[in-house]
Amino acid sequence: MVTAYHECSFHPIDESCCRPDNGGMLRNNRENAMAVLRYQSGSRIPVVHFGFWQETLDKWCAEGHLSREEASGWSDGNAADRSIGRKLGFDFNWYSCYSGNTGLMPGFERTVVETLPDGSRKVLNSDGMIVLEKDGAGSIPMEIGHTLKDRQAWETHYLPRLQDSADRLSSTQTAKLREESPTREYPLALYCGSLYGQIRNWLGVEGISYLAVDDEDLYDEILQTVGELELALVKRALATGIQFDFGHFWEDICFKNGPLVHPAVFAEKVGPHYRRITTELRQHDIDIVSLDCDGLIDALVPVWFENGVNTMFPIEVGTWRASIAPWRQTYGRELRGVGGMDKVVFAHDRSAIDVEIERLRPLVDLGGYIPCPDHRLPPDALWDNVRYYCDRMQQIFGS
């Protein structure tokens, strides 16, 4: 048994569970990944990715590496994703998730509000945000307005769209994954939604920050409504018979200097909702729970960790040089990680990739850690460099 150095009321993971078979060798990527995160012996480090920008796939298609069907049909964890991963030498995409509709249902109808002289468009998107869209731009569009501004907008446009119902889960997807569960060779996450990040999208950073002070009752009600919905969907998903390997949240509520919400407010208001969901997961023997948040996340790590999230992802290296090493010193072996590989080296050369892999060696040696490019691979990533990285990772860590 391992115990956390940081105070945490959740039971530590029993490393004796799920021992490898087949002569001591784990049979597939699914078993290997979970074994690494449980500190089991006899496991190899899988070579994992976190997907691609569409512009990257289009470029690789134009270069002849991918078919048009692969490039245009890609999404996380689907058949095109697995085909592209095999060609590059990756074992699987960590973001392979089963997800119900955890947001607005139905979403707002996409509407062009205004076309500007330069051809850019003000568009009402499915979250009720007004964003500025430009042809050829692949980055996140600029927010210029929000539907959710007050209680009237909440009760009219949002609360009715956040009610639980059976049709939030796809019966077709559920049946397919349930049938595949016993023989699936890659780990599958149960997506547990977003408890703050999607609300930040609806209100904007400024809007949600003011709301916490100007109308705390409404702020609390929105958080409670979303928390209740995500918990209900997790319970529905767990009852489907699909075999999930880990739970997974998304947030993206930090930037290069820290969080977009005060950690004390986050702990008080949002922490309990994480705890209810992670408790539900553990009651169904799901002991690995990861969370995707970009930026400098250090100030929020203790909130997540103390409420049952034990695997940080994608550990964006960034200008702040994030790494699992200092977190491990603070929280002990109960804090795991997937990510932390600086993807910018894919735009350089093989020597830069070799240096990055050597930087990862002592982190891998800590155990409970799987290197993964720290976000989607951007268009400057060279196909041959990514192939080289996968080959070297297989050679060094794959035995």
Overview of this protein structure:
- The structure is a single chain.
- This protein has 399 residues and is α/β, with parallel strands linked by helices.
- It has two domains: 29-105 and 147-397, Alpha-Beta Barrel (TIM Barrel), CATH 3.20.20.210; 109-146, no CATH class.
- Helix content is 39%, strand content 14%.
- It contains 15 helices and 15 strands.
- The chain has helices at 29-37, 54-62, 68-73, 79-88, 151-158, 171-180, 197-203, 205-214, 216-238, 263-269, 271-283, 301-306, 324-331, 350-365, 383-397, and strands at 48-49, 92-93, 97-98, 111-115, 121-124, 129-133, 142-146, 189-191, 246-250, 254-255, 258-259, 289-292, 311-313, 336-341, 369-373.
- The strands form four sheets. The chain has a seven-stranded parallel β-sheet with strand order 3-8-9-12-13-14-15, sandwiched between helices. A four-stranded antiparallel β-sheet has the order 4-5-6-7, with helices on one face.
- Strand 6 (129-133) and strand 7 form a beta hairpin.
- 37% of the residues are buried.
